[in-house]
Structure formats: structure tokens, C-alpha cells
Specification:
Elements (H helix, E strand, L loop, with lengths): L2 H27 L15 E12 L4 E14 L5 E4 L11 E4 L4 H35 L2
Antiparallel strand pairs: 1-2, 3-4
Helix pairs in contact: 1-2
Length: 139
């Protein structure tokens, strides 16, 4: 595996985890949004990753080439109902359809994404250190 390919793989992981953290932050920012442009409460969004594979020339095999975001999907869990008869979005029984966002789950996901981001930085720094050592050997 070339060092430059390892840079590309780490960079793809950094980009994917940054988008994952942005999506989680968006979920947390909308935890109380009861009405969107579509009319209902905000729905939790999740990032779906896809492994990128590259064909190995002459060997008929595959090798890892990083990760990419396949799409961002909405969680189809139902909204949670909260009794608040004075809320402008309350139904006839006084219940408000709240977003299906769980703050604790989002924070755990944020920590996981942050750790994955840090791991990609560590891998990138290790590859960079190897490249620098290789340059020193050539002197």
C-alpha cells in the first residue's frame, strides 16, 4: 500500500466522520422542532456509509480505498407524544408530536464519531511520520 493511498483513505474517513458529526449536531439542534416545512415534527437523520473498493490490477481482487457517504436517511421511528395542551402544535387531545431525537443517543453517537475522527487523524499522522522517515533514509 502506498503512503499516498493511506493519506486518501484517512482523508475519506475524516470527511465522512465530519459529516456524521454535522448530522448529529443538526439532530441535537432540532430536538424541539415540532413543525418543519413538510408540516410534521423533525425526524432524526442518520448517515449511511459505504466502503469504497478498488480493483487490484492483475490479481483479480479488491482492496480498501476508504469510505464514502452513501446517503443521509431519516429515522422512521414514530415521533414521541408529549402532553402540552397549550402548545400551538397540540392535537385535539392536547398532545404534541415531538421529534424522534433522543439526546443521550445523539451524544453517544457524537462521542463515537469524535473518537473515529481522532483515530483517522492518528493514522494520518503515522503515515506522515513514515513518509518523513522514508525521505530521511534517501538522504
Amino acid at each position: 500500500m502506498s503512503l499516498f493511498r493511506s493519506f486518501d483513505i484517512s482523508a475519506s474517513g475524516l470527511t465522512a466522520e465530519r459529516l456524521r458529526m454535522d448530522t448529529i449536531a443538526n439532530n441535537l439542534a432540532n430536538v424541539n422542532t415540532t413543525r418543519t416545512a413538510r408540516g410534521g415534527p423533525y425526524r432524526r437523520q442518520m448517515v449511511v456509509f459505504e466502503e469504497r473498493l478498488a480493483q487490484v490490477m492483475g490479481r483479480g481482487g479488491l482492496r480498501g480505498a476508504g469510505v464514502r457517504v452513501r446517503r443521509i436517511v431519516e429515522d422512521d421511528d414514530p415521533p414521541r407524544l408529549e402532553y402540552n395542551p397549550h402548545h400551538p402544535d397540540a392535537n385535539e387531545e392536547g398532545y404534541v408530536a415531538m421529534p424522534n431525537v433522543n439526546v443521550v443517543t445523539e451524544m453517544v453517537d457524537m462521542i463515537s464519531a469524535s473518537r473515529a475522527y481522532e483515530a483517522n487523524i492518528a493514522a494520518l499522522n503515522a503515515a506522515k511520520a513514515m513518509a518523513l522517515k522514508a525521505l530521511e533514509i534517501g538522504r
